[in-house]
Write a structure and sequence with these properties.
Oligomer: heterodimer
Number of strands of chain A: 0
Strand content of chain A: under 5%
CATH topology of the largest domain in chain B: MetI-like fold
Shape of chain B: globular
Number of domains of chain A: 1
Low-confidence stretches of chain A: none
Strand content of chain B: under 5%
Distance between the termini of chain A: 29 Å
CATH topology of chain A: MetI-like fold
Structural class of chain A: mainly alpha
Largest interface: A-B, 95 and 98 residues
CATH superfamily of the largest domain in chain B: MetI-like
Number of domains of chain B: 2
Number of helices of chain B: 16
Radius of gyration of chain A: 25 Å
Distance between the termini of chain B: 59 Å
CATH class of chain A: Mainly Alpha
Order of helices and strands of chain B: HHHHHHHHHHHHHHHH
CATH class of the largest domain in chain B: Mainly Alpha
Mean pLDDT of chain A: 88
Number of helices of chain A: 12
Chain lengths: 297, 293
């Protein structure tokens, strides 16, 4: 290509600037300016209730380390993620593998398992709240029929994160299953035939010799995106527990929301949101570094 | 008569062949899969069933799918006409449509420019797009909220839609898609005297229909189901979205439980019904980003 700029190219460049103009303006208003302001605000003691504020340096950040409430919310988030992630991964994978082998029922099963994903979680949370009601809920009724004591799903500090993890699992399994199904479909059938000729006929052999290695990139993708989903837990907490009982279900994003929009500690909340972004960013980075070599989009 | 018995015998045989050695294990797997599917859809069944019952029957110790006393008509009438659910649904619709239209109008031209035109700043813009993909609304909500307070737009449709007018994900997606469009066709169109706008509207857009459809589903479902942002900017009942209305029930807002679950059904029904009608498109659209919600 020659370096001389032809009139056509100049015309194109001018047009291109018009084409990206609306997006660029919105980019400034929605991302660049707000992110800069969040950063600035995180160094202040800004509250919405008074217009007076001071720059306090890194105080918000240092305060975070000593703040028991923040520590508690991180602990809750990690505990919840540790409950949620193995299920979100393993159950979805098993479902994908078994559903893929179904010939005539595959599509109906896919639809049934995917249904919770499309539904409005806020509405279904109300339903789960009723199903898990401690005194009259269907689930406790069932448990009591089998002779066990009913579980205080949302009233007990030791149980509430399990209950939230169950609801989240219900809402996300179909989603991960579809991602795994896509990964499974892209594994060439010839590999299985070759392995079978080599004597790897047992389903477990097939899984460990072919499916699992070939599914690596998909598995990584599901693991990372599920971690982000876990870290963004919000709806069920806001509707069912509001962080209770006694802060036992106060997760990080919900705390950030409370600090900003309930207590109006905007400066502190800004610092918390940046920590939130930092963690999301780490996940995204891990995903980019670990999957780029293998996945072709 | 003999013919029929013969045919029956044949189908029976075919069934046997299906069921023989290996298939027993497969049948058990299938049974378990349907059992699991029952667990997945049970909350929906319970919800619809309860929405047809009177309050005292909702928490009956023996659950039955078919209501003993049918209160379905009263419950749904109450939700749609005594309570402002028609307004809530309309608000959700306005917000979702508004967001989607602006997203497409801003993302498609930008994506085309990034994919097919050379211009100064294109690398910076694309880099910013990539960086912004990782930034969720939860991070930028404080300044955007304060900004909306300052300009007096809180509790308006604009406030409910504004942070989502630009979808960096859409720009990224469409750019990837447009890049696959053959340059030779674009060149030929230019030679034929097509302007760039005509090229976008008449050549690129029709070829991008699958990507645009999938993105539209993704956007619509995400914003219909969004609780976080409406919770922050909506203050009055007449701007409340269907999803946000579910927050009212966290306290004893409505002690008529039949009606409560009729409202939950009304809120989630549009997305579920749309999904059942366009299953492939929904599954593709919703799983597109990899992150749920």
């Amino acid at each position: 290509m020659d370096n001389a700029i032809s009139p056509l190219q100049r015309r194109q460049a001018r047009l291109a600037h018009w084409l990206v103009l609306p997006a660029t303006i919105l980019m400034l208003l929605i991302y660049i300016v707000p992110i800069s302001l969040v950063l600035l605000a995180s160094f202040t003691d800004y509250t919405l209730v008074s217009d007076y504020y001071e720059f306090i340096g890194f105080d918000n950040y240092t305060r975070m380390f000593g703040d028991e409430v923040v520590g508690n919310s991180l602990k809750n988030t990690v505990f919840y993620a540790a409950l949620f992630l193995p299920g979100a991964f393993i159950i979805s994978l098993i479902l994908a593998i078994t559903i893929q082998e179904q010939k005539q029922f595959r599509s109906i099963l896919e639809v049934l398992y995917f249904l919770p994903v499309t539904s409005t979680l806020a509405a279904m949370t109300l339903v789960w709240g009723a199903l898990m009601d401690s005194s009259q809920g269907v689930i406790n009724n069932m448990i009591e029929i089998f002779g066990f004591a009913g579980i205080n799903w949302f009233g007990s500090e030791d149980v509430v994160l399990y209950s939230l993890a169950i609801i989240s699992l219900w809402s996300v399994i179909g989603f991960n299953m579809v991602l795994f199904l896509a990964g499974l479909t892209s594994i060439p059938q010839s590999l299985y035939e070759a392995a079978s000729m080599d004597g790897a006929d047992h389903p477990l052999d097939k899984f460990f010799k072919i499916t699992w290695p070939m599914l690596g990139p998909t598995a990584m993708f599901v693991a990372v995106t599920s971690s982000i989903t876990a870290f963004k837990l919000f709806d069920t907490v806001a509707i069912l527990t509001q962080g209770g009982p006694d802060r036992a279900s106060e997760v990080f994003l919900y705390l950030t929301f409370l600090e900003g929009f309930e207590y109006f500690n905007m400066g502190y909340s800004a610092a918390l949101s940046l920590v939130f972004l930092g963690i999301i960013f780490l996940f995204a980075l891990a995903q980019a570094l670990l999957t780029d070599k293998n996945v072709h989009y | 008569m003999a013919d029929i018995t013969q045919r029956q015998a044949k189908t029976k045989l075919a069934w046997r062949a299906h069921l023989k050695p290996r298939s027993l294990g497969r049948a058990i797997t299938t049974a378990f899969l349907f059992l699991g599917a029952w667990v997945m859809i049970f909350p929906f069944i319970w919800m619809i069933s309860s929405s047809l019952k009177p309050t005292d029957e909702v928490y009956d110790s023996t659950f039955s799918i078919i209501p003993k006393t049918f209160k379905g008509f009263e419950n749904y009438y109450g939700v749609l006409f005594d309570q402002p659910y028609l307004i809530f649904l309309m608000n959700s619709m306005i917000v979702c449509v508004g967001i989607l239209v602006i997203q497409l109008l801003t993302a498609v031209p930008a994506a085309y420019a990034l994919a097919k035109l050379k211009f100064r700043g294109s690398n910076i813009l694309f880099g910013t797009v990539i960086a912004a993909i990782t930034i969720p609304i939860n991070v930028t909500s404080i300044p955007i909220y304060i900004g909306l307070v300052k300009v007096g737009l809180l509790d308006t449709y604009i406030a409910m839609m504004f942070p989502f007018f630009l979808s960096v994900f859409a720009i990224f997606l469409f750019r990837q898609f447009f890049r696959g469009f053959p340059d030779s066709i674009i060149q030929a169109a230019r030679v034929d005297g097509f302007t760039e706008i005509e090229i976008i509207v008449r050549l690129i857009l029709p070829s991008a229909v699958p990507a645009i459809a999938a993105f539209s589903v993704f956007s619509f479902v995400a914003h219909w189901n969004d609780l976080y942002w409406p919770l922050i900017v909506v203050q009055s009942q007449d701007k409340m979205t269907a999803t946000l209305s579910m927050m009212q029930y966290q306290s004893n807002f409505d002690t008529d439980y039949g009606r409560t679950f009729a409202s939950a059904t009304v809120v989630t029904a549009p997305m579920v019904i749309a999904f059942l009608f366009a299953r492939r498109l929904f599954i593709r659209g919703i799983t597109m980003t990899g992150v749920k919600g």
